Structure to design on (1277 residues):
């Protein structure tokens, strides 16, 4: 059958014309060359715009050229009439279809044999009707007299078809037409005419990027496949075992394989009768199997396109599927992802407008679902399988296609009924009747499928040495790789696209304007065609059903208003007492120390242990051995606690979920994800240093996720402590209104407590570890004036951000403590203000008032806006409300492996979950059972049976990715993901002992799963495993963890910098690619210029300004892809090129030798050649480096810095100075040692990526020379 799911486009007449001329000239040559005795070979061309393989045929006397689709799913040849209405759309000149159509009056041998008897309809609802006629038909050099064919007078398909299926499947069979008997169709006629020996042929479609393949009548070509050709039986007609109607074979297994593992996918329907159908663009499998495939690749169902779609970039995924046919010992065909990601359009690809793939190009997945048979293996499968169709023995021979084949070794079938040459029969085919139990796979491979990005930092799977084999990719020659790489960019991006050539609708929408789906797929099948089941059922696929159900639900009594009205007073109370908070700040400001006090005062820990404490125990929240040793936090840790707050003599219990985050920039992702899910934060500042470099980073993160904060100035016991400086710095540097709500009583060593400016009272700590809080209405006499002044400042600041206070201020009224508190709460929650508290965690002073402030000023879950994206409404944002009675929506924000298994942290946004309940991952609609729910207390956990709306918990046994949304299946919601910063540093790594390879790859997989800023890839050239991350410390920690947690000692290379390349001025190019290699050559000429991209120095741009069509559009797209490809590996160092623009203005083509490939290559070469002239430059990352050290070392530090970068700012405090410099990352390796030496170990520094800038000339020279040497070494190897 033809084109189910075919993407058809109305091609411009120009393009079609060029194509036709080219094809007919080539064909003549070809036929003369390739004709062999007993076999006939015809080149078939992959017409992506029409979703099928086309051959050029000749009809009539004299011959009329027609380009016709080759279809193993039907059995008739038919041609459209030149007068058919469908042809008017694509007409060239006055008459005819662009792919050719038939004019009977111009043929002297035309004879009508069945007037009005021809009537065929295909599975996608398209049809053709008219007469049967006989005439001369030529294909592949074979001429057939009196071939019976259909004449499509009334058709909605504008090209002819050559059906090569069983004759018993002809449209006429079983119909009530006057001459309803079988006639010899093409393969049978070829045998009857003595042209071939048996009714059999082989089909080689080659890979998606190759534009052509071939059909070989009467033989096989042993050069076109790899491994053994295996024979399996074709299923006969269901009710009559003597009749064969289609190429039904048994699909008996399916495996998904990627770098992260391998899954066996199962189906209720195994063994599945699948039709091998070259006329179908995509493949269609039963729902249960298709949905597992979608889960593996992260495809989503688009109701707009009525297809499972995925980002086009998934074509780079290194995962693949292995199809097992004909039982356990039958042929196995692997289909890689680059064969399964199909462009939706020939022009600009549509993009996801929201959701997890927002902004990415949309492609169709090559495997779709049908709710019932016939299931089809179409071109997306057949390209990877070399198939021999033996219609006499009712067998097919299958082997993996050799994409790389350039040779031919044709073996004809010796006689009629001879078995397929060189093929062995699959044993145990009878075992295919065993139906395996349907089980949900663990989706081990899913993670690996997602490794689809193509940049140098991307994880593209582990080196084969570490247990991952990536077949198919490994035997490719260099040329093949080139060609594949072209396709790798084949995402229909904006390059040179003509807006007119766009997505034109699926299957049957060429002529009709937006027909409803049901109409589109309606079945009007005539005759006894066996593919008669209407795919209307497809519209009610599982995914759509879920969306429909969700819509109904929304309409029902599930509105937030309805839920709010139903909310019980207990639930209202529960919510108002809940706080989800994070502690975030600059390195070493005392976050973990503060958290330890919180745990102690709330009774969660019995004793306080210090970070780097003498007792050697370490703080509760720094549970990792490495954290305790180094005295730094590496991973954020979650805990929960109940805080009893007393207000006006009344005690109330608040429930806190709390996350302590690391301060070091290398672990910034931990802060990022905490901020993504928390409702409020405590920003800790050092009383001496105030706002520091990391405070600024953390501030940015809080702002990114709209997180309200209170500020806590810690270390008030330190020499030089000055909380007011910190307040001033928050105002000036973070640009957020801040005012102290306390002032210190005593300072430095004499620091004893604070004056609460709101109630004008003093607060001191008392008892063991300050466990008691003593409040007194007496303010020390010497502080009264300062307290009044600071209270006034607080009110004035509030007046700036709060209308109510502003009004009172104007009216010169003094607000009451309650009014002040209410105003602070309003202003804090609306992100306009932060109240500043102070104390000393280490000295156990004034932590409790900070906890009261968390209750007073930070929001409860119902005070913050959390939104999800409604997939059923084009990803429209919808508010989530933390009511238990609403359907469940939660976000998995962090994954962690612990001794008990995979732990997933979930923030529950609405609804609740119970232990044992099922949830659905909204990314892939996969259902998971939640066997265990816990609340985390650092590395310990407490089991709970239920968790309510607004809470944070962790669950076991859930396979997902960080950032996945879970629902209870009632809402089609997803949530936006978080920001993941770029990594700037990488190093090569290798386990010292080869026996550690398994443990190494296990560890790496885990680290990547847990930490999105940690990436791994294998350098294709050196085959080295390269890890990359946020900095030296980040990578160091992982190497150390490998050693400790996995007992794997590693050798690491020198840390490397992620350089970039760019151009600085315009340079013209005129490049001619002309190669002749015996067969068809390569010819492309491109002219234009390259220049720095004026719009964005970080991105590249391709522009087409060709006038007069010297380069046709399709080659323009190839040029664009060539440019993109050239930018991946820059000419200077092989690093990515950024900020370049290529403009193509002119060029030339050759009738036979020009191709996408040639233009792609020409554009690449042109770019590379012009690069030097355009001032090609190496860019290096500059790091914003902040150094703080005692003032006496300023001179030393200045000397250190002079060599490394330019100083941006220096601030000299009482006894410390802070220097900010933009430094070359390259110069900063080993800096900590130098800084330690220069400051007697008292200096500190932090580093954060700032921007890319030109590397100094001497460094560029050095780098380029080293790269060239490396290349030379490789060439001579
Ligand atoms: N003098 C003084 N030192 C403190 C205070 N609070 C914490 N420290 C010390 O500061 C150092 C860092 O404390 P941590 O609690 O680990 O700081 P952190 O912010 O959690 O550090 P990272 O998580 O690594 O960013 C430790 O040596 C603490 O003992 C304080 O109030 N006063
Ligand atoms: Mg810490």
């Amino acid at each position: 059958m033809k084109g189910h799911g075919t993407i058809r486009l109305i091609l411009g007449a120009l393009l079609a014309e060029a194509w036709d001329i080219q094809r007919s000239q080539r064909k003549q040559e070809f036929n003369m060359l390739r004709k062999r005795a007993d076999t006939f070979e015809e080149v078939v061309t992959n017409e992506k715009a029409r979703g099928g393989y086309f051959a050029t045929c000749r009809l009539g006397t004299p011959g009329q050229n027609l380009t016709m689709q080759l279809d193993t799913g039907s059995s008739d040849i038919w041609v459209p009439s030149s007068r058919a209405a469908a042809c008017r759309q694509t007409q060239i000149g006055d008459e005819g279809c662009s792919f050719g159509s038939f004019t009977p009056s111009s043929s002297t041998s035309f004879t009508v044999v069945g007037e009005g008897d021809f009537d065929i309809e295909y599975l996608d609802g398209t049809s053709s009707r008219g007469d049967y006629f006989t005439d001369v038909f030529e294909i592949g050099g074979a001429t057939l007299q009196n071939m019976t064919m259909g004449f499509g007078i009334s058709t909605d398909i504008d090209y002819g078809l050559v059906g090569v299926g069983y004759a018993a499947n002809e449209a006429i069979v079983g119909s009530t037409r006057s001459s309803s008997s079988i006639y010899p169709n093409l393969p049978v006629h070829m045998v009857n005419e003595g042209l071939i020996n048996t009714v059999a042929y082989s089909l080689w479609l080659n890979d998606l990027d190759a534009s052509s393949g071939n059909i070989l009548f009467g033989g096989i070509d042993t050069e076109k496949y790899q491994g053994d050709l295996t024979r399996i039986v074709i299923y006969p007609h269901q009710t009559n075992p003597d009749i064969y109607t289609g190429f039904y074979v048994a699909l008996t297994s399916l495996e998904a394989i990627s770098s992260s593992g391998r899954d066996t996918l199962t189906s209720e329907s195994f063994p599945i009768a699948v039709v091998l159908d070259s006329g179908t663009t995509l493949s269609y499998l039963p729902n249960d199997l298709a949905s597992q495939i979608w889960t593996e690749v992260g495809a989503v169902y688009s109701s707009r396109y009525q297809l499972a779609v995925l980002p086009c970039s998934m074509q780079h995924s290194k995962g693949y599927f292995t199809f097992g046919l004909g039982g356990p010992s039958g042929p196995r065909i692997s289909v890689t992802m680059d064969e399964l990601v199909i462009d939706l359009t020939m022009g600009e690809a549509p993009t996801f407008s929201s959701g997890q793939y927002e902004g990415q190009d949309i492609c169709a997945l090559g495997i779709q679902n049908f709710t019932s048979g016939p299931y089809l293996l179409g071109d997306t499968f057949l390209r990877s399988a070399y198939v021999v169709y033996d219609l006499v023995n009712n067998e097919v021979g299958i082997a993996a296609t050799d994409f790389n084949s350039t040779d031919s070794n044709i073996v004809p079938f010796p006689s009629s009924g001879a078995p397929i040459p060189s093929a062995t029969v699959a044993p145990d085919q009878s075992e295919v009747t065993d139906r395996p139990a349907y089980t949900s796979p663990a989706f081990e491979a899913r993670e690996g499928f997602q490794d689809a990005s193509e940049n140098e930092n991307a994880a593209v799977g582990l080196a084969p040495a570490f247990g991952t084999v990536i077949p198919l990719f490994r035997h490719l020659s260099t040329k093949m790789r080139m060609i594949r790489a072209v396709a790798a960019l084949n995402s229909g991006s904006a390059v040179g696209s003509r807006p007119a050539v766009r997505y034109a609708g699926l299957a049957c929408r060429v002529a009709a304007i937006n027909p409803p789906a049901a109409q589109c797929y309606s079945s009007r099948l005539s005759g006894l065609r066996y593919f008669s089941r209407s795919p209307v059922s497809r519209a009610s696929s599982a995914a759509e059903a879920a969306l429909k159900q969700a819509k109904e639900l929304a309409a029902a009594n599930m509105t937030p208003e309805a839920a709010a009205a139903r909310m019980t007073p207990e639930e209202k109370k529960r919510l108002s007492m809940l706080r989800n908070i994070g502690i975030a700040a600059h390195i070493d400001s005392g976050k973990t120390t503060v958290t330890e006090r919180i745990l102690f005062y709330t009774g969660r820990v019995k004793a306080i242990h210090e970070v780097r404490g003498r007792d050697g125990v370490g703080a509760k929240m720094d549970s990792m051995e490495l954290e305790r040793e180094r005295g730094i936090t590496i991973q954020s840790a979650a805990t929960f606690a109940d805080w009893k707050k007393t207000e006006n003599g009344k005690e109330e219990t608040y429930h806190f979920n709390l996350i302590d985050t690391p301060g070091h920039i290398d672990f910034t992702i931990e802060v990022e994800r905490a901020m993504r899910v928390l409702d409020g934060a405590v920003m800790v500042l050092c009383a001496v240093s105030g706002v520091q470099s990391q405070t600024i980073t953390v501030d940015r993160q809080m702002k990114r996720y709209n997180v309200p904060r209170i500020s806590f100035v810690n270390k008030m016991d330190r020499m030089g402590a000055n909380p007011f400086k910190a307040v001033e710095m928050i105002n000036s540097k973070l640009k957020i209104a801040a005012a102290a709500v306390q002032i210190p009583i005593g300072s430095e060593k004499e620091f004893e407590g604070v004056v609460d400016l709101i109630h004008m009272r003093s607060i001191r700590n008392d008892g063991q570890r300050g466990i008691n809080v003593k409040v007194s209405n007496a303010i020390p006499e010497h502080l009264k004036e300062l307290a009044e002044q600071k209270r006034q400042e607080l009110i004035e600041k509030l007046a700036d951000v709060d209308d109510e206070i502003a009004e009172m201020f104007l009216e010169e009224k003094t607000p009451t403590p309650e009014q002040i508190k209410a105003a602070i709460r309003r202003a804090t929650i609306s992100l306009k203000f932060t109240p500043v508290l102070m104390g000393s965690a280490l000295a156990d002073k004034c932590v409790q008032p900070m906890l009261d402030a968390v209750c007073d000023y930070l929001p409860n879950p119902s005070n913050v806006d959390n939104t999800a994206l409604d997939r059923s409404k084009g990803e429209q944002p919808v508010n989530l409300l933390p009511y238990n009675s609403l359907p469940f929506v939660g976000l998995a924000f962090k994954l962690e492996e612990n001794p008990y298994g995979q732990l997933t942290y979930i923030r529950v946004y609405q609804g609740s979950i119970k232990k044992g309940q099922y949830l659905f991952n909204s990314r892939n609609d996969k259902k998971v059972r939640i066997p265990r729910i816990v609340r985390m207390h650092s590395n310990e956990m407490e089991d709970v049976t239920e968790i309510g709306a607004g809470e944070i918990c962790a669950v076991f046994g859930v396979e997902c990715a960080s950032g996945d949304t879970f629902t209870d299946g009632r809402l089609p919601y997803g949530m936006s993901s978080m920001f993941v910063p770029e990594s700037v540093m990488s190093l090569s790594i290798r386990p010292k002992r080869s026996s550690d390879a398994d443990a190494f790859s296990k560890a790496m997989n885990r680290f990547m799963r847990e930490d999105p800023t940690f990436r791994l890839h294998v350098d294709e050239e050196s085959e080295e495993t390269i890890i990359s991350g946020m900095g030296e410390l980040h990578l160091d920690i992982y190497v150390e963890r490998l050693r400790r947690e996995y007992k794997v000692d590693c050798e690491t290379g020198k840390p490397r910098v992620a350089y970039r390349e760019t151009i600085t001025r315009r340079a013209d190019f005129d490049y001619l690619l002309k190669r002749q290699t015996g067969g068809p050559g390569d010819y492309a000429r491109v002219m234009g210029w390259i220049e720095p991209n004026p719009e964005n120095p970080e991105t590249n741009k391709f522009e087409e300004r060709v006038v007069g069509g010297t380069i046709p559009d399709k080659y323009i797209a190839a040029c664009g892809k060539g440019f993109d490809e050239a930018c991946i590996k820059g000419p200077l160092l092989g690093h990515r090129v950024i900020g370049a623009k290529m403009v193509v203005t002119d060029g030339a083509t050759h009738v036979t030798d020009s191709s996408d490939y040639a233009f792609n290559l020409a554009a690449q070469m042109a770019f590379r050649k012009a690069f030097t002239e355009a001032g090609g430059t190496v860019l290096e990352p500059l790091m914003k480096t902040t150094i703080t050290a005692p003032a006496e070392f300023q001179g030393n530090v200045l000397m250190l810095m002079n060599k490394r970068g330019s100083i941006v700012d220096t601030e000299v405090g009482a006894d410390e100075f802070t220097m900010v410099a933009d430094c070359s990352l390259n110069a900063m390796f080993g800096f900590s040692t130098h800084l330690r030496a220069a400051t007697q170990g008292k200096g500190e520094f932090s580093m954060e990526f700032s921007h890319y800038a030109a590397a100094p000339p001497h460094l560029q020279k050095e780098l380029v020379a080293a790269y060239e040497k490396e290349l030379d070494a490789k060439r001579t190897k």
Residues 13-34 form the longest helix (22 residues). The first strand starts at residue 40 and ends at 47. The pocket of magnesium ion (ligand 2) is lined by residues 591-592, 633, 660 (CB under 6 Å).
